[in-house]
Amino acid sequence: MTDARKPWVKPSIVMHRSGMVNKFGSVQRSQWQDQLAGVSVAALVEEHGSPLFVISEQKLRDNARHLLHAFATRYPSVRYAWSYKTNYLGAVCRALHQEGAWAEVVSGFEYEKARSLGVPGNEIVFNGPHKTRSSLERAIAEGARIQVDHLDELYLIESIARETGRRVPIGIRLNYETGYTENWSRFGFNVESGQAMDAAWRIANSDSLELKWLHSHIGTFVLDHRAYGAAARIVAGFMNDVEQKTGCEIDAIDIGGGFASHNALQGIYLPPEQVVPSLDQYAEEVCTPLLEATYERVARGRPLPTLILETGRAVVDDAESLITTVVANKKMPDGRRCVIVDAGVNVLFTAFWYNHQITPTRDLTGAPEETVIYGPLCMNIDVIRKSILLPPVRTGDTLIVSPVGAYNNTQWLQFIEYRPRVVLVHGEAEVSVVRERETLATVTELEQLPPHLAPTDHDGQSPDPSR
Length: 467
Ligand SMILES: Cc1ncc(COP(=O)(O)O)c(C=O)c1O
Prior knowledge:
alpha/beta, TIM Barrel, eight-stranded parallel beta barrel, 13 helices, binds pyridoxal-5'-phosphate
């Protein structure tokens, strides 16, 4: 006969807040789901361990197509350049390149990675405030689309161009006040102060450089879509101005990234469904002023400038989830319940600014209680959710954390724990490992021990107590 007795738990009084209403309606009954992209969570954990990142290739492709559709139906010449820093797992980049995306990179490393994934130089947009001489030399030789951040970079590119005897087409990054966002003035050249026009003059007076495109990236997770209307008006206005004054011919406007994903930013009261603009709203804001500003140019027989998008999080975030397992339940001295899970902020960097959705994988019974979810790290900062209403969970229960596709697989760090596997679900619910879990060998691969510190045969033996 099996022992059906429950373990004894010290009684405590807890205020139950289930069913509590707020001004937007009642709290929803706890949702649960036991599969991801059509594959059972239990089977995924059994095969690949926990924690585990799971990417849906179909969702990723659908998101990219949706983005392009929103813009291409409003503006005839659109190019999408995948923002590598958002998620540069090879499988993610390759799926997007197969969808026709170029690469948008911000370092020599990202440039090399894009080339290693088969992206030709002339389909790489090279951004960022630090581009080394060697990475610029390669990018220039391969015809990459370099967007200049500051004057020192401009001079460096000019000197490389002179050495090679080539006339190098370049872009400049602009920063300006949209009236809806804080100006990220540390990147690029300022429009209002005249700095951007000065840079354009400097290029116009160079015999080895040519200003061919303009870049701007106004911020990230920009919730007010009107900011893009202002941005497009300012950049297109600058384009007309700079062409008229310096005689250059701009053939592309790169509006950067920054569209919000369906994640819940901490401190924002309303849920993502209510605050995140649709891709169509962003597209409408960008394309309308761009078309208006180019009427005259088209009338004069010149082609429309290509609109380049560098959307990151809005394409990849909800294509990836993280499965984590409950390792312990605890009571805090103030009566709050806390749950410890096996995925921490070392793999979920975005927990610092999002309240990720946490979904149980079975129907949890019992009254929901305010719960803190801690990660496994022996560090006070390791908090996955500061407060969530959750019914009781047991050790071994799995939870799905989502969306996690943006800025986690690039900003994660090997700290205390090994980083877990990442799998891709594709085709008819097929699962492929796209990044292996770390091992002691992979983590220590780059370390070297000087001979006098190398372990010897005597190491590991108990010290002689007489000495
Ligand atoms: C220059 C540039 N382009 C594109 C992106 C992608 O931004 P997001 O993920 O907000 O779309 C970034 C990210 O900060 C960026 O710096």
